[in-house]
Amino acid sequence: MIPFIDLKKQYESLKPAIDEALIKAASSVRFILGPEVQELEKVLAEYVGVRECVACANGTDALALPLLAWDVGPGEAVFCPTFTFFATAEAVALRGATPVFVDVNPVTYNIDPAGLEEKILEVKREGVLRPRAVIPVDLFGLPHDYESVARIADEHGLVVLEDAAQGFGGCYGGRRAGSLGQVGATSFFPAKPLGCYGDGGAVFTDNSDLAEIIRSSRVHGTGGRRYEHVRLGLNSRLDTLQAAVLLVKFEAFPRELEARQVVADRYERALLPAHPHIPAVPGGLRSSWAQYTVRVPETRRQRIMELMREDGVPTMIYYPKCLHLQPVFAYLGGRPGQLPAAEKASREVLSLPMHPWLEPADQDLVVRSFLEALEKSGDEAE
Ligand SMILES: *Cc1c(COP(=O)(O)O)cnc(C)c1O
Fold this sequence. Notes:
Aspartate Aminotransferase, domain 2, alpha/beta, seven-stranded mixed β-sheet, globular, binds pyridoxal-5'-phosphate, Aspartate Aminotransferase, domain 1
């Protein structure tokens, strides 16, 4: 079986520098918020193009910390796409606020601006919840429709928290993912475009006052003095060891992004003539290619996956169940058919192996296996 994401090859490509950084961080014994963490925050803020970066324990906390700092809570509506990883809405519900799910654009898979506006107006009309924030997601690495979302958010007085867990490294015009909102959140989970060797995350913002609150919140709401607490917070620091790994990996990151683009271009050239249902990147945008996701007929998806597995090619479904249909959100009254573009996507998407070290020979195998499985499953269905 070829790997879906080849983390081993990545380690091998950077082994001497990573080993050295790990040993140095270990020898310093400054395991918590050591100098590597501050250095990482500095280089990442510069890369994203914002004033402040606050590293934290994971991408879920990177969403939770700004919501906490804004004191988002009960009685408030936070709009997010229904087609995303669970954590996007989990962070909202854990604050006691109400996630309001919005349909996605069927081509980009990102939050549909028209659907967003409709939901905001609906919430206002009902008069039960106060619209407070929107969390657009840069799904599969493609930045969301930033200009439209920002305009709608401004018009209705919402703050924008960009979920750039997958989008880190992507661009919208001249702006980097992570800077496409008042606050951006990213994840360094190993499988993300910039991954560490465990869990990690970061918050980005131009708002220094807010960053100060988040810095305090990630260490139990600490005040200026030790063991003095001025607010409730979390324990959500980034390990020095993870920061050390990330500093090395960040050096290689631009090269890796280019390599991902080469892989995506190869997929496009090989698949497009036979199967036009491949990812589209709108003009002016750059994807970080966290995933390469195609569409297949829903009745044949399972069979295609089986056939490809027999060829030693792994595939994944991101995501098989929309958030408005998740059991834990049943109390919100979500029903099948309410958000049709996202529901259709959840039945048809199929992600192919994607990482910077995917060799042409292995990629040829993926393409051949996919096209054969597509054809064979079609013949069987007749
Ligand atoms: C991975 C991911 C998260 C959560 O990140 P963790 O580091 O795993 O907590 C949030 N949102 C999206 C869209 C993700 O893909």
